[in-house]
Amino acid sequence: MTKRINSNATLQALKPKDKEYLIPDKKIEGLNIRVRPTGTMTWTFRFQIGKKHEKISMGRYVKSKPEQGMTLEQ
Q: How far apart are CA 49 and CA 26, in angstroms?
């Protein structure tokens, strides 16, 4: 079973790995958190227009100070 984001505790538990990885949101299809090897976490949204797939970065999640970045609720 794939891990999904459903709370701030889930975000806080994510750890950097050797390669970048994405964890999808439980409620919103296309919303993911990207975790880089440096520990930087960025919200991304993937969507499709016709046959073209797009991805946008929406903001950073700051693990040490979530209120300074883009939170799960936002």
A: 22
Cα–Cα distance for residue pair 55/65, rounded to 1 Å: 26
Query: Is residue 3 assigned to a domain?
Result: no
Please state, in angstroms and as integers, the Cα–Cα distance from residue 67 to each residue in 52, 64, 70, 73, following that order.
34, 9, 7, 11
CATH number for the domain including 61? 3.30.160.390
- The pLDDT tens digits along the chain (74 residues) read 468 888 888 888 999 999 999 999 989 999 999 999 999 999 999 999 999 999 999 888 887 776 667 677 76
